[in-house]
User: Which sequence fits this backbone?
């Protein structure tokens, strides 16, 4: 996303991004990863925090690699002058791999069709494509399927076939298989039996590749939750995303503070309308809220088009005048109404929607609980109408 400069004369809200928090979080994750390398996942516009500034801060904090879902994201990183190793793993048939190869971007390959297209792009560019084979060890999502549960008879699976094709492509020089990777289904529940079963299936998958003569440099499976709770799954590299941004991927097991993570995003808006109303006033569409006493209503011009979940109607809270006050009635496209009670509030007053929680404001996790979702969705939903404002270093140092 192109960065929009925040101008209070134009924008009713902004998201402040603390790059020092990103650096701190990455450094802490690095420590937990031990000898393993650290890939900071910056897909989806750096989880809504802004791709390039976040990527620079992550590298400053010690990230060895950056990971993205889509090739365009990695090309934006290269265009910004970021030179660390990049891996991009999600591709649709017909995607143009040539710019990725020219820009030295490693590619995740999940299926024979993907390998064939990468091979074609490699011969067109005269480059050797660096690929990481994606194995499905039990998530049941993308990746080539392999039998799990510690079974060693992994022959005749999609994955074994992909390994054979990749080894053949490597022998004729168009690809170099540098890695094998997988993704957990239940990393947020570390005692769930699939966590162990997927580790065993991954060990098998690594063996299948090595038996086929592939010399793997990076074997990787851990997202944020696994990096924090299952250190024995680190292999050669961990791939945290959410934790880089200071949010806990396992809120039932520990808060951000419990893992020494600092939430990087603070979402701020200003009150646009204030009115004192009597008891019995219906509020917002469908009057899903009716005042029970005389109260002050504060209209705040951010809504679901900006990223406020509509499911937080009558449930989300904000910090206003030093107090936590609730969203009254439905979240609209462009605005929400806060029941300010007897808080002394004036037009133009600052409203903190969420932040690290250090000033008493709700956190992204609080909003996630109010809306019945996960904090990932709260931060990634913030859209282009909400400019990002960077503090804690401009991220220009890499
Ligand atoms: C998004 C993603 C990650 C990061 O996941 P978090 O839960 O945010 O840490 C890691 N690996 C893959 C393949 C992903 O798609």
Assistant:
């Amino acid at each position: 996303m192109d960065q929009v400069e925040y101008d209070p004369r134009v924008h009713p809200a902004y998201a402040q991004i603390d790059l020092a928090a990103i650096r701190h979080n990455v450094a802490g994750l690095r420590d937990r990863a031990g000898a393993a390398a650290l890939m900071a996942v910056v897909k989806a516009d750096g989880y809504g925090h802004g791709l390039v500034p976040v990527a620079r801060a992550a590298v400053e904090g010690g990230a060895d690699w950056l990971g993205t879902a889509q090739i365009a994201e990695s090309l934006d990183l290269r265009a910004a002058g970021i030179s660390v190793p990049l891996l991009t793993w999600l591709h649709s048939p017909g995607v143009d791999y040539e710019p990725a190869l020219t820009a030295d971007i490693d590619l995740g390959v999940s299926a024979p069709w993907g390998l064939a297209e990468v091979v074609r792009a490699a011969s067109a560019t005269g480059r050797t494509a660096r690929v990481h084979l994606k194995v499905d060890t039990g998530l049941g999502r993308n990746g080539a399927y392999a039998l799990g549960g510690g079974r060693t008879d992994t022959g005749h699976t999609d994955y074994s076939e992909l390994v054979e094709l990749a080894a053949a492509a490597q022998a004729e020089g168009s690809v170099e298989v540098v890695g094998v990777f997988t993704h957990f289904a239940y990393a947020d529940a570390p005692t769930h039996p699939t966590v162990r079963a997927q580790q065993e299936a991954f060990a098998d998958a690594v063996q299948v590749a090595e038996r086929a003569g592939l010399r793997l440099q990076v074997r990787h499976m851990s997202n944020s939750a696994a990096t924090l709770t299952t250190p024995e799954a680190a292999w050669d590299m961990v791939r945290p995303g959410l934790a880089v941004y200071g949010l806990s991927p396992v809120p039932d097991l520990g808060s951000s503070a419990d893992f020494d993570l600092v939430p990087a995003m603070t979402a701020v808006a200003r009150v646009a309308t204030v009115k004192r109303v009597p008891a019995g006033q219906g509020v917002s569409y469908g009057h899903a809220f009716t005042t029970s006493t005389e109260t002050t209503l504060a209209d705040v011009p951010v809504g679901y088009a900006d990223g406020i979940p509509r499911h937080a109607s009558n449930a989300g809270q904000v910090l206003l005048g030093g107090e936590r006050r609730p969203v009254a009635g439905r979240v609209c496209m462009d605005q929400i109404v806060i029941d300010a009670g007897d808080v002394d509030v004036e037009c133009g007053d600052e409203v903190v929607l969420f932040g690290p929680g250090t000033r008493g404001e709700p956190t992204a996790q609080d909003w996630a609980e109010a809306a019945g979702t996960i904090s990932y969705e709260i931060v990634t939903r913030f859209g282009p109408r909400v400019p990002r404002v960077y503090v804690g270093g401009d991220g220009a140092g890499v």
About this structure: The chain has a mean pLDDT of 95. The CA atoms of residues 219 and 390 lie 34 Å apart. The longest strand covers residues 129-136. The pocket of pyridoxal-5'-phosphate is lined by residues 41, 43, 89, 183, 223-224, 239-242, 249 (CB under 6 Å).
